[in-house]
Design brief:
Chain B: This is Na+/H+ antiporter subunit D. Chain B: It is found in: Cell membrane; Membrane. Chain B: Belongs to the CPA3 antiporters (TC 2.A.63) subunit D family. The structure holds two protein chains of two kinds. By secondary structure, chain A is mainly α. Chain A contains six helices and no strands. Chain A folds into two domains: 2-100, Helix Hairpins, CATH 1.10.287; 109-157, no CATH class. Residues 129-158 of chain A have low confidence and may be disordered. Chain B has 23 helices and two strands. In chain B, strands 1-2 form a two-stranded antiparallel sheet. The longest helix of chain B has 32 residues, at 163-194. Chain B is globular. Classes of the chains: A mainly alpha, B mainly alpha.
Chain lengths: 158, 562
């Protein structure tokens, strides 16, 4: 099997960019990352089919000069699947937006409760008699306002 | 060709086709919930029956169907060997019972939050994807099966579109999309190396490939399947995303999705890369870490659903342990363990759903006195819990014993470590299960700790947030007059004498859970024959020839008849 170096370089660049975007907190960028990674993988599949050649139509070119049609079929399937997943991701992101007016990934609920508990335990260690723990109730109001979940977590951490 | 064989062959595509067609019909029938329910139950019952016939039909040799009569390496093949059929029968049985549970709970009924009744169609698509993954004789078709079931799982996990589910769904979707892309990259590498995607043909040609390249391809595929199966360093997504979903959805996910990953690992390990000491070593270490870290995570949790999610991760380690040994005894025990674990884990998540219904919460800090409130629920929890913990004579014990035996036979230092880890994990699991039992079921109600005001608000916010709205809202609709007076029994506050009376459990849900418990017990009763079956499956897998000859033998037949 031989493949174009340019294609390989392109795949490498796309993978790098895709992973970078995927690790971002902004959900739109995560979606873009998924799309870029998907395209990188599709190119990888194409390059697995060997050198480029004529369209795989019987009679148009000698068989030895044709490019591999199987990888093209595979990529077609993969593109459809990526499109479906992208549409679903987009709808989830839209849903997050309608709920929170926010494009960023919020801190996980369980993480918040763990952090809350940790903060409280430290408080108790410092002052054994002060266990009322009512000093941070303000963050509840924040959460009622919606979209300020992280403010609440930050408040608990403080 | 004898008629019995052709009959079995013609049944082969049905486990994939029937649920898909059923899903289409269910979507059309969205306006008529009753018909829709009967349709889904009917379709899945038929699939279970077909799976049972396939188990019998593949006993002698693997059954192969070339789709569209294109001979083996060109067309797509469906292969039903003993491993696939055993997995198919177990998973479809659990799928059917969980569907009955879901109908009882009313997840499927349309309420204000799910305007279109999409539960049934999606659930059937999930079943079709799982069946396609198990029966596929082609690496790319396996990928398609994965995508079909994942797409359905995305929808099921975010059903209702509430804040917490959307948040959990995002993690789940992104992690699984990445694992699928890694899988697709692995497929590209396989194709570049051997020029085919037919599993049987890959196994013939892979031996000629340079060992370094083989290892690289192998590790890419293992990473992809490892994410799906939640093997340790790649398992962090699971306990975060599963507990937020509706109870039946979590139950079916726990039973099936990770096991499809385990199935793929077994398949690649035995068929494609049979002698790869490096990968086997990596798998052994991963298995040890998965078992112990998962079990420790389970102990640290105070929410029943999260405890169960961690035990789910932990016990994936047992299966990987068996596969990594790469001996017939090890693989046989692993297959037995998969069958046991699919059933038990799904049962426990169904029980967690019932606990939530009766106690109003799944947090052990808010639950108490459930054994007095509902003795039946206590029994339903206790039996699968000790089964998971590995108390003899239940099937969990038999599976673990088989794995330990296989490990001792292997005799290497790493294998001994794993044997120790397996025993330790079994104890830790038992501890985690016993902790839930003592706190939620045995502790008298008046010993409930006074909650920290912050946590009360926090937990109540979760409910207001609509963490379980579909279930609570629909529970009313499904049970008609049967109100959920028992709900919130466990919530903090004064408890009147009246509420101490046994609580009536929702009938259909309880019956479905009871049936799952019964299946778990039946596995214990038939453990002997089942073990013979899985051992034979493992022998076939490790010798590899039956699979390959079945695929190509028939292809030769067809060329002659033409």
């Amino acid at each position: 099997m031989s493949s174009s170096f340019l294609l390989l370089a392109l795949i490498a660049v796309l993978y790098t960019a895709g992973v970078y975007l995927l690790l971002d907190r902004s959900l739109t960028r995560v979606l873009l990352g998924v799309l870029v990674l998907g395209n990188a993988t599709n190119l990888l599949v194409i390059s697995a089919g060997g050198p480029f050649g004529a369209a795989a139509l019987v009679g148009r070119a000698p068989e030895s000069a044709m490019s591999d049609a199987l990888v093209q079929a595979l990529v077609l399937t993969a593109i459809v699947i990526t499109l479906g997943v992208a549409a679903f991701l987009l709808s989830i992101i839209h849903r997050t937006w309608t709920l929170d007016q926010e494009d960023d990934l919020t801190v996980d609920t369980e993480d918040r409760s763990v952090r809350r508990r940790l903060a409280r335990d430290e408080q108790i260690d410092e002052d054994e008699f002060d266990t009322t723990g009512c000093e941070q109730t303000s963050d509840t109001d924040d959460e009622h306002a919606g979209g300020a979940a992280r403010t609440g977590a930050a408040g608990a951490q403080a | 060709m004898n008629p019995a064989r052709t009959l079995v062959e013609s049944l082969l595509p049905l486990p994939v086709l029937l649920p898909l067609l059923g899903a289409g019909a269910a979507l059309v029938l969205a306006g008529r919930p009753r018909v829709q329910r009967w349709l889904s139950v009917g379709v899945l019952t038929a699939v279970v029956a077909i799976a049972a016939i396939l188990v019998a039909g593949s006993a002698e040799q693997p059954q192969v169907l070339t789709v569209g009569s294109w001979p083996a390496p060109i067309g797509i093949t469906l292969v039903a060997d003993q491993l696939s059929t055993i997995m198919l029968l177990t998973s479809m049985t659990v799928t059917l019972l969980v569907l009955l549970y879901a109908i009882g709970q009313g997840t499927s009924d349309d309420d204000s939050r799910t305007p279109v009744s999409i539960f049934h169609p999606t659930y059937l698509v999930l079943a079709a994807g799982v069946a396609n993954a198990f029966l596929s004789g082609d690496l790319f078709n396996l990928y398609v099966g994965f995508e079909v079931l994942l797409m359905a799982s995305y929808v099921l996990l975010t059903l209702g579109g509430t804040r917490s589910r959307v948040r959990a769904g995002l993690t789940y979707v992104v992690v699984n999309v990445v694992s699928s892309l890694v899988f697709l990259a692995g497929i590209a590498l396989v194709y570049a190396a051997v020029g085919t995607l037919n599993l049987a043909q890959i196994s013939e040609r892979m031996a000629a490939v340079d060992p370094g390249t083989q290892l690289a391809i192998h590790l890419v595929l293992l990473t992809a399947f490892g994410i799906k199966a939640a093997v340790f360093p790649l398992s962090a997504w699971l306990p975060d995303s599963y507990p937020t979903a509706a109870a039946p959805v979590t139950a079916v996910f726990a039973g099936l999705l990770t096991k499809v990953g385990v199935y793929s690992i077994i398949r690649t390990q035995t068929l494609l890369f049979p002698d790869d000491p490096v990968a086997e070593g990596i798998l052994m270490v991963a298995a040890l870490a998965t078992m112990v870290i998962g079990a420790l995570g389970a102990i640290a949790q105070d929410d029943v659903k999260r405890v169960l999610s961690f035990t789910l991760v932990s016990h994936i380690g047992y299966m990987i342990f068996g596969v990594a040994l790469a001996t017939p005894a090890g693989v046989g025990a692993a297959i037995f363990y998969v069958v046991h674990h699919i059933t038990v884990q799904a049962t426990l998540f169904c029980v967690a759903g019932l606990v939530e219904r009766v106690g109003g919460s799944t947090s052990t800090t808010r639950l108490a006195g459930l054994a007095a409130a509902s003795p039946l629920l206590a029994v339903l929890y206790f039996v699968p819990a000790i089964n998971l913990g590995g108390i003899p004579p239940l099937s969990g014990f038999v599976g673990k014993l088989g794995l330990v035996e296989a490990g001792v036979q292997d005799g290497s230092v790493l294998a001994w470590f794993l044997v120790g880890g397996a025993v330790l994990t079994s104890l830790l699991t038992l501890y985690a299960m016993a902790k839930v039992w003592v706190l939620a079921f045995w502790r008298p109600r008046d010993q409930l700790p006074v909650e920290h005001p912050e946590d009360v608000e926090f937990n109540d916010l979760d409910h207001e947030d609509g963490r379980y709205p579909v279930m609570i809202g629909a529970g009313r609709a499904a049970n008609g007059g049967e109100s959920y007076s028992g709900a919130f029994l466990g919530a903090a506050g004064a408890v009147s004498e009246e509420q101490r009376q046994p609580v009536a459990l929702p009938r259909t849900m309880t019956a479905a859970t009871g049936a799952l418990v019964a299946v778990g017990l039946a596995l214990t009763l038939v453990a002997g024959p089942l073990y013979t079956l899985t051992d034979r499956a493992a022998a076939d897998l490790t010798s590899r020839t039956p699979y390959v000859t079945a695929v190509f033998g028939q292809a030769v037949d067809e060329r002659v008849t033409r």
